[in-house]
Every structure is written in structure tokens, then in C-alpha cells.
Design goal:
The N and C termini lie far apart (65 Å). The chain has helices at residues 2-38, 41-47, 50-64, 91-108, 137-140, 145-161, 164-182, and strands at 70-76, 119-125, 130-135, 200-201. Helix content is 58%, strand content 11%. It has 202 residues and is an alpha/beta fold. The longest helix is centred in the first third of the chain and has 37 residues, at 2-38. Strands 3-2-1-4 form a four-stranded mixed β-sheet, sandwiched between helices. Strand 2 and strand 3 (130-135) form a beta hairpin.
């Protein structure tokens, strides 16, 4: 009888822990959905105002004059809810979805379509404070994966710790440095500005 009572107590505790864990997961999901519903283009323009966007545009233009790459910035306030359903199983699942979204913007903004195959998209998702860099093959093949990961992690830390403009400025400077090393502009070689330099805020 004592053993039966002890077994029932343990089973009850397991059930309680399972219920508490399920509730915590549900609350986390609801908080995430609320952020993505609440934040819209106005948030992107508030977090990165017109003056900051113009400073970044000028920085992109100045860097592109020195190499054959094309750099775009996209600041997205939140994901469409369809991208969050079913709810991400874990942080790795969420990260993979955000990466796919960045790749989608890479295609939508035609960053893949440059003469030197040296387009780069710097993508920021404000709702999750995440930064992604998507590069065409000229750059992607030249930067070692470990350096790539370390750089993105450092930029992401800066995004979460500081301002959006400061994090994006570091990202632009980093990308310019990479492009200058692998695809420098040379005297007498055509170097047209193939894509707009303006920051996309959505």
C-alpha cells in the first residue's frame, strides 16, 4: 500500500511538471505571436529613422565605389504569422525560419542578380532582434564558415545590446571589408551601381 501511494505521488508530480511545461511553452508562443502582430513598418521606421537610414545609404554607396559588390539592407519589423505556424519546435527551428525569410528577401530584392555575383543582403528581424547576412557565391565561397559565424554572432550581440543603426553600421563595414578583399574595383573597369542603396524598412 505504501508503494502504491508513493507511485501515485510520483505520477502526480510528473503530470504536474508536464502541465507546467506545456503552459510555459504556450505562454512563450503567445508572447512571440503578440510581438509579431504588434510590430509593423512603423516600428521599423521608428527604430531606424530617416536620418539613420540616410547615413547607412551613404555608407553603402561609399563602400560600393571601392568594390564590385552590391549591398542591400532590409529591416523587417516582424514575420507574417504564417511563418510562425506551426510554432517553432525550438530555437534552431526558429533560426532556420528566419534564415529562409532572409533568403526570400535576398531573392525579392534581386540581390542575387548582379554582374559579379557579389550581392549581399544584411537582414534584420526586429521582433526577434536577429541579424542575418545572405551573400551570393562570389563572397560566400571566399569567407570561411567559422569566420562567417563568428562575425554574425558578434553583430547579433551588438544588435541586442545597442542600437539598430550601430549594429547595421558594423555589419556594412564588415561586408565592405570582405568585398574589398575578394572583388575590388580596378581602375578603368566598369563599376555601375546595379541596385538601390536605400534601406528597405518594412
Amino acid at each position: 500500500r505504501v508503494l502504491v501511494r508513493r507511485w501515485r505521488q510520483l505520477r502526480g508530480r510528473r503530470r504536474l511538471r508536464a502541465v507546467v511545461s506545456s503552459m510555459a511553452t504556450l505562454l512563450s508562443t503567445l508572447r512571440r505571436w503578440a510581438r509579431h502582430v504588434w510590430l509593423d513598418e512603423r516600428a521599423s521606421r521608428r527604430w531606424l529613422d530617416d536620418a539613420a537610414a540616410e547615413r547607412l545609404r551613404q555608407r553603402i554607396a561609399a563602400g560600393e565605389a571601392q568594390h564590385l559588390g552590391e549591398v542591400r539592407i532590409c529591416v523587417e519589423a516582424s514575420l507574417p504569422l504564417a511563418w510562425l505556424w506551426p510554432p517553432p519546435a525550438d530555437e534552431a527551428d526558429l533560426a532556420a525560419r528566419i534564415r529562409r525569410r532572409a533568403v526570400q528577401w535576398f531573392a525579392r530584392l534581386h540581390v542575387w542578380d548582379t554582374e559579379a555575383n557579389a550581392g549581399v543582403l544584411i537582414y534584420v528581424l526586429l521582433a526577434e532582434r536577429v541579424i542575418e547576412i545572405v551573400a551570393d557565391r562570389t563572397l560566400a565561397r571566399q569567407v570561411p564558415p567559422a569566420q562567417w559565424d563568428d562575425t554574425v554572432q558578434a553583430l547579433q550581440h551588438g544588435l541586442r545590446a545597442g542600437t539598430v543603426e550601430a549594429a547595421l553600421t558594423r555589419a556594412v563595414d564588415t561586408v565592405h571589408g570582405w568585398l574589398l578583399a575578394v572583388a575590388p574595383a580596378t581602375s578603368g573597369q566598369p563599376n555601375p551601381n546595379e541596385l538601390p542603396d536605400a534601406v528597405v524598412r518594412v
